[in-house]
Amino acid sequence: MAQHLRVDLDTVHGERKIEQEEKEENFRRVERQYGEFTRSFTLPSSVDPGQVSAHYDKGVLKTNLAKKAESKPKQIKVTVGSEKTVEAKAPGKAA
Q1: Model pTM score
Q2: What does the pLDDT read at residue 95?
Q3: In this structure, is residue 73 part of a structural domain?
Q4: How many domains does the chain have?
Q5: Can you spell out the DSSP letters for 33-85?
Q6: Would you say 52 and 44 are in contact if contact means Cβ atoms under 8 Å apart?
Q7: What is the pLDDT of residue 8?
Q8: pLDDT in tens for each of the 95 residues of the chain?
Q9: Residue 77 lies in a domain
C-alpha cells in the first residue's frame, strides 16, 4: 500500500494506491484501488505562513495555523486622569 500526501499553504493533495493479490492452487485474484484528491482553500491574512505545521497519522491530517504576532489581541493599560487604571484589549476592541 502506498500513500502520498502533499500540503501547500493553500492546497492539500493526496493519493492512495492499494494492491492486494491472493493466490490459491486453482486461481489468482488481484484487486487494485486507486484514489486521488485535491482540496484548495484560502488562508486568512492573519495566518503566519512561517508557523504552519501539519501532522498525518492513521488517515487523519491535522494542521496548525498560527496567527501573525500583529493579529493577536494585546492587553494595554490605560490611565484615566489621576484616577484608576483601566485595562483594554487592542487593536480596536473596547474595554
Answers
A1: 0.45
A2: 45
A3: no
A4: 1
A5: EEEEEEEE----TTEEEEEEEEEEETTEEEEEEEEPGGGS-EEEEEE-TTS-E
A6: no
A7: 60
A8: 455 656 566 788 888 888 889 998 888 998 888 888 888 877 788 888 788 888 888 878 888 888 887 766 778 888 887 765 556 565 554 44
A9: no
Alpha carbon separation from 91 to 49, 76, 80, 84 (Å, rounded): 22, 10, 18, 21
Q: How far apart are CA 82 and CA 32, in angstroms?
A: 78
Alpha-carbon distance values, 69 to 29, 34, 50 (Å): 57, 42, 12
Would residue 71 be called left, alpha or beta, if left means φ above 0 and alpha means ψ between -120 and 50 degrees? alpha
For 5, the domain range is 1-42
Confirm whether 37 is domain-assigned: yes
CA–CA separation, 33 vs 15, rounded Å? 11
Q: What's the CA gap between 54 and 61, in Å, rounded?
A: 7
Residue for grid cell 480596536: 92
With CA atoms as reference, report the closest residue to 85 among 74, 95, 73, 94. 95
- Assess if residue 11 is contained within a domain: yes
